[in-house]
Structures are given as C-alpha cells and as structure tokens.
Amino acid sequence: PTETIEKKGSKDCLENSKESKNTISETKDNILLRKGNILLFYSSDGDPLDSGAQILTKKKFIKQPGARNSPSGEITQHREKHISYFQIAWDGKIPLKEILKILKNMLERDKTDSLSLSYTPEGIYTLSWDEIVENLQEVFEGTKIRISICTNEIIIPDPKDRAEIIGEAHGSAVGGHHGVTKTCARLKQQYRWEGMKKEVRNHIRTCSSCQKRKILRMKTKQPMVITDTSVDAFDKVALDIVGPLPKTKAENIYIVTMQDDLTKYCMAAPLKEASAAQVVNAMAKHLISFHGAPRIILTDQ
C-alpha cells in the first residue's frame, strides 16, 4: 500500500550541490505530496522512466501519455486540478543537458522558482543518477530556480491502514498516550497524509485509557471583576499578609499590610500568627483608631 525507494548513492553530487548556492536540495518528502512543478521523464512511447513518473502513474494521480510517438526532447506542461507537472519525452539519444536548457528557459519565462523530481537510483537509460544530478547542477546553477529531490522516505499509507498506524503511534509503549501535537510529530517522522491531525484528534478522543486518566481542569479562582475608584481617603483599604518570615525577638513571623486605595498610603503591623483575630486587632490599633473604619476591605481570594 505504500511507495518507498531504497537510496543508493548520489550523496557526493548532493554534497557538491550545497556549494552551488543550494541549487539542489534533498528532502524526505514523497513525490505524491508535491502539488506543483514536478519533473517527469517518459519514453517516446509513453512509458514512465523515472520513479516519480512511475509512482504518479501507478497511483493514477496523472494519466499515462500513451503510445503517441512523441519526438524526443519534447517538453509539455500540464496543469490539472490537484497537480502541475512537466513531461519530458526522451529516447536517451539527445543529450539531457540540451533538454534541461529548454526547460530552464520555460521556467524562467513563467517566473517559476522551484522544481521537484523523484530520486531514481537506477538512473535513466545509460545515465546514472549521479550524472543526472550533475546535469541539473550545471544547467540551473546561478539561476533562482531551486530543485528539490524527493527521496520518498515519507510514506503515504492507504486509508484502511491509518487507524492502525495512529493506534501504534499513540498507544504503544513508545507512543505513551501523548496528546495530538506529540502524536502527530511522531507520525510525521515516517508518514504524511491529508487530514492527519483531525484523525489523530478523533482517535485520542475515543482512547479509553486517555479518557480514564484525563484530568478535568476545574476553575478554582473567582473571576476578575472591575472595581470602583475611591473618592475619599481610607474609604477602601486593601489588606495582605506577608510571611512566614524569620522570627523576631517579639516572636512575630508575619506582617499585615494595609494600603489606602485612593492615596496609596501604606501601613504595616507585625503578627505572631496569620489568624483573623490577629489581623482584626492590628487593624483596630493601626488603622481604625487613626482613620476610622473603611467602607470596603479588599483581600486576596
């Protein structure tokens, strides 16, 4: 149900391409994930020559050209609803470099800055894959066109296999019943398909182990409210307790602070313990006896 290609070589060419202003780069993507500007090689009789053409034709993403005896070197551009690609008809006799020069002119004319093709380890005709990469480098070096070589290491599984794959990534000993983000990240190391996140979310919602261990996050704090502004001094006073602190000689370990809301005038009194009786006594002695009883007292929830 999947398309994978074993990698053999081409590392030297790709390493050299890094010195050519990154004209060519390698990606683990599957060619099926590319939506635009894909380069495909076919014989004059319409047979797919590179792995990308083979995969896309087999999966019926595109129609096989058929035996129409296209002249070697002919480049046709196709734009369909879900994909756009360039087809090159080639018999192996015309130098590949000459065909690529024509393709480069087409891309520059259309102001296209990217091109994708599939890694083909066996090469095409008498050209090895390394020689194909060298031709691409020579033709496209110095242009704004960036070429991505898809190694097809990312697998696109059949829809019928996706539930099992998600279950393994989420519920196995390695998966650890993580959430949507971490489960998707684990899947994307090897798989990719449209709607993956939605399917993972639905799977986790129906996972019995996750539902049993799910933590219900209850609101434990009062909602914030907008308070009015005082018009008189000591009409509204805010109280707070600081501590416990190092014990003093009088054996006090707390401090109660009293701040006027309007003037921001602040008083502090020592406490032996953070009890209601101690706080009331401190208020009576340091606040009420001097400024009268406040209309409103604000404290922490």
TrEMBL record:
GO molecular function, one term: nucleic acid binding
Gene Ontology biological process terms in this record: DNA integration
Domain Integrase catalytic: 219-301
Lineage top rank: taxon: Eukaryota
Region named Disordered: 1-21
InterPro entries according to UniProt: Gypsy_RT_Integrase-like, Integrase_cat-core, Integrase_H2C2, RNaseH-like_sf, RNaseH_sf
Record-linked PROSITE patterns: INTEGRASE
Pfam families in the cross-refs: Integrase_H2C2
PANTHER family in alphabetical order: ENDONUCLEASE-RELATED
Protein's name according to its UniProt entry: Integrase catalytic domain-containing protein
Organism of origin: Bracon brevicornis
